[in-house]
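Before we proceed, please read the two lines closing this message. Let me know whether the structure tokens fit the sequence:

…
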Amino acid sequence: MAIAKAERLMNLALCLLGTRRPLTKRELRSSIEAYVESFGTGEGPASSDESFNRMFERDKDDLRELGLVIETVDGLEGDVGYLARRDSNRLPPITLDAEEAAALGLAAKIWQQARLAGAASGALQKLRAAGMPLAAETEDIDAPHSALEPRIPAHEAAFEPLMLACRDRRPVVFDYRKSNAAHPERRQVEPWILECWRGHWYVAGWDRDRKAERVFRLSRITGKVRSRQGAFTAPVPDHVTVRETVESWAGETATGSARIKLRAGHGYPLRARALTVRALGDGWDELEIPNGHGLDAWLVEFGPDVVVLEPAELRADVIDRLRAVAKG
């Protein structure tokens, strides 16, 4: 929704909520600045009146679709009036338990670097003013305080457009650079859901070109994410299935174990997942780590600090990826 339209709808809603008597179209037209700037106060040509009537009907329908209850009242002189009674549009009290409030506070923090940061902050302030505890406020005051605070970063430029596309079920197009490729490729995707895994955001969806389910890491999306018209062509799985797919494609679901050599003082994310660690000397350690789909792509990111010992298939996949990057 364009900012100008959002402001126009807000002003119309405030007029309808603030009046004690029904207002006619002419009164609303002369009271709302956006209508006056576009169509005047009603003294113009008939075409201007027709354009205003069409816009007003669209705005009225949009407000009703957003949940505003607008009454239509027939006046004594035959004019139709409109108003939105406050008692008909008052929301019931918001009640959240401690877990729900904490989850809401954490979700709002995702928007700290996004365009809706101000709106999210304002919403939290209103909930606090209503006496609703949020995030750290839900902790037991007698419990020991922790220096750690949960945070979910959302720095990638692709986060917001993909989040909106997932919400609205809109296909998107973007350029994507795989870990073993020097140049990005165009992808046409029907996005299902965003997941944050080990500090990185991923989007799971249907790749139209490959006609298969795929997961993309947002930090590897280059350029802008562009929306496309039309409906999804593939069914959307439930949330649990999508999350399992994200974890699997990101290397979370282990199907075995692998042995690697890791340079001492490097690869702390790998060390955090290690099943066993053994010092080899000469500045190297041997680690046993879970082996699952996507591990080869992850190991490539550590460059010369990692050497795969076994299994042979994993070693070959890592070497192929490194050669592809070297060729450019």
Notes: DSSP finds eleven helices and twelve strands in the chain. The longest strand covers residues 185-197. The radius of gyration is 28 Å. The CA atoms of residues 170 and 230 lie 7 Å apart.
